[in-house]
Structures are given as structure tokens and as C-alpha cells.
Amino acid sequence: MNSILNNSIAKSTSYLEYRTFIAKLAQDGQTSGANPSSDYVNYTKLNESRMHRLDKTLQVVEDVKSFLENLSKEYIWLVIAESWCGDAAQVLPVINKMAEVSDKIDLRIVLRDENEDLMNLFLTDGTKSIPKLIIIDKESVAVVGDFGPRPKPAKQLILDYKAAHGVVDEAAKIELQKWYLADKGVAIQREIVELIK
């Protein structure tokens, strides 16, 4: 596992590099990953505008901020994402705001389809669901915990919708986006902090 983690970290990008990459894909009518369909191109454009808004408006809540400012250990926060992923567009800006609070967190990002070995270590119920945050102790390269693809209330919303309707369709995705909008990243912040307390 350590060699896979180290290889992924070595080829990872910063949040700013990732955002620049997404903005360019959206501008050029392209998408990341193995499926260059028009739907994925449209998702990438939509996610660019979502991330742009969230980068400007998101706030780290005070107790989370205080906790992160007083971390005693150094961490690498390695996130697996893709430009077309709606959850990544909602979750990554929150993770970035949290990382900005502490000089002990080094946020790095890799693309799922270019890092299959890493993704296979962090499956969700056997699926390659993203985003996936892997919290790594910087000194020992030990995995402290992982988070994703979405916070528990959002996971439950999708499970409930699927139970009621049999599918996760466009209406479900709209409900999920409304939930993210109302929550303002708070559930994500609290769940991630619990992993390192």
C-alpha cells in the first residue's frame, strides 16, 4: 500500500493546479477521465461553475477551524476525483477550505481513472465512488482514515430516493445538490474532523 500511496502523492497536484485544469477543460469543452461523452463534458462545465461559487462563499465553522489550527501532527490529504463528478465539485472546495486553515495539512489531488491501483484500495461498497479523501500521516505514511464519496446525510438521501424510486435519476441529483446548498459544507467538515480526533 505504501508504494501505491507514495506513487500517487508523487504525481498529485495542488488544489490550485486542479482548479486551473478543471477551468481549462470546461472552457475547451472537454472532460477528464475515460468517458469523454457530451454528458460528462456538460457535467464538467456545471462543476466548474459550482466550484467557482463555493471557492468564494464557503466558510469553515469555528470549532472545526479551531481544531485544525491546533493540529499536532502533519498530514497529507490525498483526494481522488474527476472533473465530471458532481459530489467532487461539492466536497473538494470544502476540503480545500479546511486545508487552508492549517499549515499542517498538505492537500493533494489525483484523478481516479489515472490511479486505478489507489482507487482499488479505497472502494465504497465495491464501487469506485468519488471523491475519496485519504488522510495520511505525513511522517509514517500510515492511512489515518478516509472520507467519501459524500457525507452521511447525503448518502442517506440517495439511499432513500433509490428505495422509493428504484433509480438515481436527474431528480435525485437535483435533490442532492439542494441538500449540499443548504448544508454549506458543515456535515463534511464535522465528519472529516472526527477521523483525526
The biggest beta sheet, please? Answer: 4 strands, mixed
Indicate the CATH topology: Glutaredoxin
Named at the architecture level, the CATH assignment is 3-Layer(aba) Sandwich
**DSSP helix fraction:** 55-70%
CATH class: Alpha Beta
**Domains counted in the coordinates: how many?**
1
Computed CA radius of gyration, to the nearest angstrom: 16 Å
SSE pattern: HHHHEHEHEEHHH
**The CATH H-level homologous superfamily:** Glutaredoxin
Structural class: alpha+beta
Number of strand segments: 4
**Percentage of β-strand residues:** 5-15%
Q: Could you give the distance between the termini?
A: 23 Å
Tell me the layout of helices and strands:
Layout: H1 2-10, H2 15-28, H3 38-57, H4 62-69, E1 75-81, H5 86-101, E2 105-111, H6 116-121, E3 132-137, E4 143-147, H7 152-165, H8 170-183, H9 186-196
Parallel strand pairs: 1-2
Antiparallel strand pairs: 1-3, 3-4
Helix pairs in contact: 2-3, 3-5, 7-8
Structural write-up:
With 197 residues, this protein is α+β, with helices and mostly antiparallel strands. The protein has a single domain, classed as 3-Layer(aba) Sandwich (Glutaredoxin), CATH 3.40.30. It is built from 9 helices and 4 strands; from the N terminus they run H-H-H-H-E-H-E-H-E-E-H-H-H. It has helices spanning 2-10, 15-28, 38-57, 62-69, 86-101, 116-121, 152-165, 170-183, 186-196, and strands spanning 75-81, 105-111, 132-137, 143-147. The protein has a 4-stranded mixed sheet, with helices on one face. Helix 7 (152-165) packs antiparallel against helix 8.
